[in-house]
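User: Can you predict the 3D structure for this chain?
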Amino acid sequence: MMKFLTDTKRSNNIEDVFVHPHLQKYILPWTKSIYKKLDAGHLLIQEFNAVGFNIYLYQLILECPATFFAEFDKPTVALIQQSGSIGLHYVPKGTQEFFFPKGSPELIYIELESNWIRDIAYNNEHIWKIFQAAQLGDKDGVQAEPVVIDYLFNQIISNIKNCRETGIELQVELKVQMLELLNLYRKAIKEKKIMSSLCPSPHKEALLNIWQKIKSNPNIQLHKLSILSKQNFMHQKTLSRNFKRLFSVDLHSYVLDQCMQKGFHLISTTTRKIRDISSELGYKETNSFNRAFKKYFSVSPRALRL
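Assistant: Here is the predicted structure, written as structure tokens:
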């Protein structure tokens, strides 16, 4: 189990039944919630405990950067989401340190029994080290590569937070969502490994960042060649040529592909209005999005929902 402490390694904060107004919107109906007033600001702790897993959500309002500590009564495997990335960790028994920037940071900490990662560990040396460390109860922590959270991760995290089941149905639904989260993490690590193994190329690091930026949150307007070239201090021809050389696809086609894939995902898995989805993808007119979508998938967005 995880016990969150303050930056002095002891519980010198003040528990309060009156939650700060800005934190009330984060309270989930299926969690046990504790609000604490800290020297550096405010902390909302939410937790859910079940057989095989525990979920902890920490939402803060901080007036300045702060370091906090957590005590663990036994070694554990955990998915940790913080600052726009998610990673798998082996956390040994003892006290661990967490840093939070000023503002409204969030930490999602999902404890898992080690057998949850056994199947995905065989093909990844970093995850295998975590699995082995958990089996042996090592004294040193192990971290697999973190990956950037994209809209697919955000959708699963949103599904977890917005779950409205109760009782055993709640545990089943949360377990399904966490397995999807693990599988998506596995795929993201695999893709990251493939990307890093690409042949050396001019501006490779910048191009990899551009690739990930587009994939994380595709936008037909914000990811135009002219805008990306200025942001990365590259001539348009240089960016266009090297992007296609490295990834074997031209920049515009990749942006369009990612926009269409996200659009398909949002249309088929949510009830959001099509005009809102098209706007999120950077289309000024919904009709323009509809035409591009139908040309790409041979079906209109409206027909997809029928």
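The chain has two domains: 2-144, 201-305. The first helix runs from residue 21 to 24.
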